[in-house]
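We store chain and fold; thus.
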Amino acid sequence: MPAEYVNEAREVVLGDNVRIEEGVRFKGGRFFIGEGSVIGKDTSFQVTEEFRCGPYSRIGEHSVIKGRRIHLGREFYTNHHAEIGGGSCFEKTSQLRIGYWFHLGSHAMVNTAMPVEIGNEVGCGRMTNIYTHAAYESAIEGFPVRFAPVKIGNRVWLPNATVNPGVTIGDDVVIGAGSIVTRDVPSGCLAMGIPCRVVRERAYPVAMPREEALKLIRSILSGGDVRGEEQPGTWNIKVGTTVFDLRARTIAGKADGMTERARELLRRHGIRFKVEVAGGAYQPWREE
């Protein structure tokens, strides 16, 4: 059962096996927390219309989440002291939509003064900031003032970077640490700097040959004391009797401590699987 929390919301709906730690506060409209999710201690929610997070999400302790409409995909993750909201986040233009497997590092922020749309498998490392407004001094005295949406595609990595209002980042992009993104970044590139510039086009993705990929996977697993066996002629690795399909991102078979260890080791290397555990076995993701 979840710990007692402060409920100043119109409605809070919890999925199965949700864990809410002490000091959590809900304020505002309607909240829907997906099954298997964890809300860390002293996290504060103030969402005036609707908040949704998908199954098996984890929101780190001391996080702050504010806005009007916030929809987060499955396995959403924030580390401690992360923030969604910021200045002007309660204006009618405020909204946030994020796909699955999103990561927001500690002390990172997504500002939602204007709409923010983020795709699947996007990682924002520690102290990354995404801004949709930039304003302080007088607009009628020539100072820069901008309010504009931000859009980020699928499979993007932003480690300790800053994204300015109005920027669109394509799919399969890596931004160098410490960069300040002031203009659009096309798909498939490596970009870095202040201001951020493309340094390599068509950099990602690069398909690794099967044998080389399987060798890497075996190395990752063995480094974590997990034995993985290749199924000849396939992209499959077996851990015990359980089969990891590296191309389809599925796992078939029994779930146990060793297979979960393997899944975690691969996740740390960006190799994630569209499965969940039900009845002691891996099942494909169910529709939300």
